[in-house]
């Protein structure tokens, strides 16, 4: 009876150890799976080689297709009459000339845009308007560009005058009912005005402008 009990005890111990070892193995496998993959230099070289082969294959396919197209065109022209061959050759020349003309025109258009933008900036600078607006109103057509500059100049001056009116507080003259520029603007307030605002103030009230510039 004691031998049988000992046998069962040994069996249960062995089973528990096996289960424990299996659990530990599973945990190790899970930990390895959860850890980020690490690539060796050999793995990187293999991936680069695979990518190079992929690019090479794609390039080879393109070259093969181009070669087939040339062969097909050659076979087509081989069966042409002398007149048809001459017409095909003439068309090739026309296509080549057109391609060159298109490239040349693209360069000329780009140059015209640069020149127009430079001219627009110059006019804006002369009018003390920020040149950053040039790209929005520039045009290669001189008449359109001048019209844009004229219209924008009017809008900018109007907006500038409004800004000055808001900054320089006006007072109503009880006798005339007209608005006069406030005389209490300090030199500090004047120093905060932009060049355009100072010019607008000089036009609106030369006397006050002269007083502020002397302080």
Give the gist of this structure.
The chain has 8 helices and 2 strands; from the N terminus they run H-H-H-H-H-E-E-H-H-H. It has 215 residues and is mainly alpha-helical.
Break the fold down into its secondary structure elements and pairings.
Blueprint: H1 2-34, H2 41-78, H3 82-126, H4 134-137, H5 142-167, E1 170-172, E2 179-181, H6 187-191, H7 195-204, H8 206-214
Antiparallel strand pairs: 1-2
Features:
single chain, 215 residues, mainly alpha, 3% strand, disordered N terminus
Describe the protein:
79% of the residues lie in helices and 3% in strands. It has 215 residues and is mainly alpha-helical. It has a two-stranded antiparallel sheet with strand order 1-2. α3 packs parallel to α5, α5 packs across α7 (195-204) and α7 (195-204) packs across α8 (206-214). The protein is elongated and about 95 Å long.
In DSSP terms, counting alpha (H) and pi (I) runs of 4 or more, how many helices? 8
Tell me what portion of residues adopts beta-strand conformation.
under 5%
From the helix content, strand content and strand pairing, which structural class follows? mainly alpha
Question: What is the H/E string?
Answer: HHHHHEEHHH
Low-confidence stretches: 1-9, 30-35, 171-181
General form: elongated
Distance between the termini: 121 Å
Strand order of the largest sheet: 1-2
**Largest sheet at a glance?**
2 strands, antiparallel
pLDDT average, as an integer? Answer: 74
Total number of strands: 2
Q: Give the % helix.
A: over 70%
Q: Radius of gyration, rounded?
A: 43 Å
